[in-house]
Design goal:
This protein is of the alpha/beta class. It has 15 helices and 25 strands. Strands 17-19-20-15-14-22-23 form a 7-stranded mixed β-sheet, with helices on both faces.
């Protein structure tokens, strides 16, 4: 399947128009939007449709029709298709990575990791097609068999963010397909061409028409909201969402009244604790990556660095020196930058507003100066900063847990330094945010590491490593405002896309009543050992 013919624009410029994919067909819409290179906004990648509510409904109907055959496809065969998809992504890894980097602005190194995560996910779930085990259970009655089976839920609606436009969708789509579900996916409007390319590779693997449907558009009041509305129309059996906690709560309300269990992977304000005995070289490197990798545009990015009092000043000095040497710029032109631009102007403006918040809180601005421009840029900036929206790496000092800047997710290149005294206060402060996604501690004291691991309120914890980073065979997800207890990745995600079906097979040819007609053993006379 390929894009439509190029659509002429002003002058000699042309922009390719892409379409929704519904039931294996390319479907256009009246309204459209453009996708820009996040690192160079004048570079337009394509024009994409804004799917209407009726088109979203048509996609759900197509998925429902396809489900009846797809769920009956033997799981090992579905696994084989997942394997084909993995091979296709692996073949196109470099091209897909470069497209991803160009469209949403992360470095090529990170983009390759993003795509590799999808490949790893395919490799993992290919074999799970032969391990969708049920159980045989002994019955308390004669000539009766009990057994359990995993069954697919049905049509799954998926809404994903733009910061990981391949890895995160793969976490949802691949296991959902493997377990026999069909998909209607509304990707982020920030990475539509990457999403289109990824969908084409999914279809190449051998998916029948209607099993994988792609609808483009925006969030609230547009395609994303229309997809959520499909729960009330009883056209979705499941919705999986990655995005803000505020939107996640709204989706959770709709899912709840329809008695469905959503997958909600939401925001974060991850704590990174550095204790007095830590290897500071390692801690500084980890904290630098946790705060500024992907320009801080990760839900697992470190939000607060919680420093044990004896090493506070030394860590601060070392950290400031490292931050001042960060290289920033267009990843497509400079392959040695740590981070590139904001994904879009909306994210930039939201992040920029936190400067006023920090000033009101009374925090000390140790380093940073809002938007990077030609006249206002750090020494390590490379290229023309006004081709996109770039933010200064920002450090706030003298931050306390009662400050809004400590509590709120900034989603950008910002970190707070917080002083505590000892492991108990470090844990108490780390837990004093509403989020609970990722966490990290740097210490060589095994008792402190154990205490942190056992008491931190988070879905994920690293010891002597960064808050960011995931592997395809480990569970990913959070607690509190970071999620609803569901998990992505690994065998745990299978529970999100299946239900257990218990089967009672009575071979006796008559009605047998468990608990009422069960042959229980009679207890014999008691034995008094002292009298033996």
């Amino acid at each position: 399947m390929t894009q439509t013919a190029q659509k002429p624009k002003t002058g000699e410029a042309t922009v390719k128009r892409y379409m929704n994919i519904i039931n294996g067909q390319l479907v256009d819409s009246e309204a459209h939007f453009l996708s820009h290179n996040s690192s160079k906004l004048s570079d337009v990648l394509g024009e994409f449709p804004v799917a209407t509510k009726e088109q979203v409904r048509e996609a759900c109907i197509a998925a429902k029709t396809a489900f009846e055959k797809w769920r009956k496809t033997p799981a090992p065969i579905r696994g084989n298709i997942i394997g084909n998809i993995g091979k296709a992504i692996e073949r196109e890894k470099e091209a897909l990575s470069r497209l991803l980097s160009r469209e949403m602005g992360k470095t090529l190194k990170e983009a390759r990791g993003d795509v590799q995560e999808a490949i790893d996910t395919c490799h993992f779930f290919q074999s799970e097609g032969r391990r969708l085990y049920g159980q045989t259970v002994p019955s308390e009655m004669h000539t009766k068999d009990l057994m359990t089976f995993r069954r697919p839920l049905g049509v799954v609606g998926i809404i994903t963010a733009g910061n990981f436009p391949v890895a995160v969708p793969a976490w949802k789509i691949i296991p959902a397909l493997l377990t026999g579900n069909t998909i209607v996916w509304k990707p982020s409007e920030d990475a539509p061409l990457t999403s289109y390319a990824f969908t084409q590779l999914l279809i190449e693997g051998g998916l029948p028409d209607g099993v994988m449907n792609l609808v483009f558009g925006h969030g609230g009041g547009s395609t994303g909201e229309f997809l959520v509305d499909m729960m009330d129309e009883k056209r979705l059996n499941k919705i999986a969402f990655t995005g803000s906690s505020a939107v996640g709560r709204k989706i959770g309300e709709v899912a709840g009244r329809n008695l469905t269990h959503p997958t909600l992977e939401l925001g974060g304000k991850s704590p990174l604790v550095v204790m007095r005995d830590a290897d500071l070289d390692n801690a500084v490197s980890g904290a630098l990556w946790a705060a500024f990798g992907t320009g801080g545009q990760r839900c697992t990015s470190a939000g607060n660095i919680i420093l044990d009092a004896p090493i506070y000043e030394e860590f601060k000095q070392r950290y400031l020196e490292r931050v001042q040497s960060i290289k920033i710029g267009n990843p497509g032109e400079h392959d040695d930058v740590l981070y590139g631009p904001f994904i879009n102007e909306r994210f930039f403006k939201s992040w920029e507003a936190h400067y006023e918040l920090g000033e009101k809180d009374g925090a000390t601005l140790l380093y940073g100066n809002k938007r990077i421009t030609r006249d206002n840029k750090p020494e390590g900036f490379m290229g023309d900063p006004e081709e996109a929206f770039y933010g200064w790496p920002t450090i706030w000092d003298n931050v306390s847990k009662d400050m809004q800047i400590f509590q709120r997710e900034c989603f950008g290149p910002t970190i707070n330094l917080v002083k505590v005294d000892g492991i108990d206060e470090a844990i108490e402060v780390a837990n004093s945010v509403e989020y609970g996604l990722s966490s990290a501690i740097y210490t060589n004291n095994r008792e402190w590491a154990y205490k942190f691991r056992e008491n931190i309120q988070a879905g994920m914890t690293s010891i002597n490593n960064s808050t960011t980073g995931a592997e395809a065979h480990m569970p990913f997800g959070g607690t509190k405002a970071s999620g609803n207890g569901t998990r992505e990745s690994g065998i745990w995600v299978i529970d999100n896309y299946t239900y257990w079906h218990g089967v009672n097979d009575d071979i006796s040819g008559k009605l047998q009543l468990a608990q009422m007609e069960t042959e229980y053993a009679d207890v014999k006379a008691p034995v008094n050992v002292s009298e033996l």
